[in-house]
Fold this protein.
Amino acid sequence: MNPVKRFRHMLTNKEVIVAPGVYNCVAAKIAEKVGFPAIYMGGFITSASVYGEPDVGLVTGTEMISHARNITASVNVPVLADADTGYGNAINVRRTVQEYEKAGVAGIHIEDQAQPKKCGNLPGRHVISTDEMVAKIKAAVDARVNEDFVIVARSDAYAEYGMDGLIERGRAYVEAGADVLMLLQGLGLRSVDEMKKIGRAFNVPLLFNMRHYGAIPYMSVPQAVEMGYRLIINAWGSLGAAAYATLEFMKELKEKGTIEGFANRMIPFDDFTDLLGLPEINALESKYRS
């Protein structure tokens, strides 16, 4: 079963899908090796790791799709990718969906933010009208060639319209054809009770973004599942961990002039090249050696 069909199959069969966020192909390969059934490529993690910029709408759709293409080519598990606002109106969304499909991802999420968009953890976000977002979702559904390709509708409406407005929008987005809802928990939902209310309000798969900060930190997978969330991501934790490790490595080298004391915190070189697929390449070289 190909990754796109597998992702749809997991959703249809109400499996719990934990998809950690990855910032490059190495992180993707590690997530796959550890045994995660899917992975997630977000806008914040891409903007930060590839361009060294905050997620404030600076990265284009072309750049996001290019990064997604590299990641999907490096693994065999389904990849869910951030498509921000769809990069324009409903017509732009059509092309966005088609290009992400060609890149090999299993699904995307599109948000109802107005331009310039920002990371969901940043203040100052505003949303477009419900009607405009509904048109984008309909365009996304119509544009996909593979019916198994998953459309996730994300709403950032909580700050401006509150819980009732968020739920109202979620229902409109499902009616428009969204397969999954991502009702933001960044600077959005402020309590476990609100999470539970969202879980009771919908019968479609719900996406939960696991965090180590904010109003609802350290929510475990079992806790989220109990409240009705079955697609669980951790949007940028792998980059946060990598940045911390890199900072410690750089400090060690700068302050001590040696990396000897850090060696036991680094993956062995041979293990790393195995992760990258060197044994398979060596086998192919032997096969085709004249």
User: Anything to note?
Assistant: The CA atoms of residues 199 and 237 lie 24 Å apart. The domain at 3-236 is CATH 3.20.20.60 (TIM Barrel). The radius of gyration is 20 Å.
